[in-house]
Design a protein that fits this description.
The chain has 4 helices and no strands. It has 138 residues and is mainly alpha-helical. It has a domain of 47 residues. The structure holds fe (ii) ion (FE2) (2 copies).
């Protein structure tokens, strides 16, 4: 069994969310490996990074849908998702043009994602759990 890459303090307790976060952390590790394995050729790294960008967008949509389903406020969280998605898209453009500092980008992305989970997703998970508890007891 593959070990989870999600730090314990970032586990939210919402199983689907934790599984998706784990998948995204695994993908970030693969992107990093690909870029560092062959430094002159960024083709595979770029492919994996675009896949990661798509999966991030799908994950953001999933969180938004869960919040909507249970009437959990999501405005600021959605704006943060949009900022992160735009950042990744911009970086893909820079990599294509050869103007991106890839090691710095990957460290930054991981930190950024970790702090997003800590600041937004852990709170969202608690709100989802509370709301679904209310719904079940109603
Ligand atoms: Fe998330
Ligand atoms: Fe999120």
């Amino acid at each position: 069994m593959v070990q989870t890459l999600v730090p314990l303090e970032l586990m939210t307790g919402v199983q689907d969310m934790d599984a998706q976060h784990d998948h995204l952390f695994q993908q970030m590790a693969r992107v990093k490996e690909a870029f560092f394995a062959v430094s002159e050729d960024s083709t595979e790294g770029l492919q994996l990074l675009s896949q990661l960008a798509d999966d991030l967008v799908r994950h953001y949509a999933w969180e938004a849908a869960e919040a909507k389903k249970l009437n959990v406020p999501f405005g600021e969280h959605a704006r943060e998702h949009a900022r992160m998605a735009a950042f990744v898209e911009a970086k893909i453009g820079e990599i294509e043009r050869g103007t991106c500092n890839i090691p710095a980008l990957m460290v930054f992305m991981e930190r950024k994602f970790e702090s997003h989970v800590a600041q937004f997703d852990v709170r969202l998970a608690k709100a989802l759990q509370a709301a679904s508890g209310r719904e079940q007891s109603a």
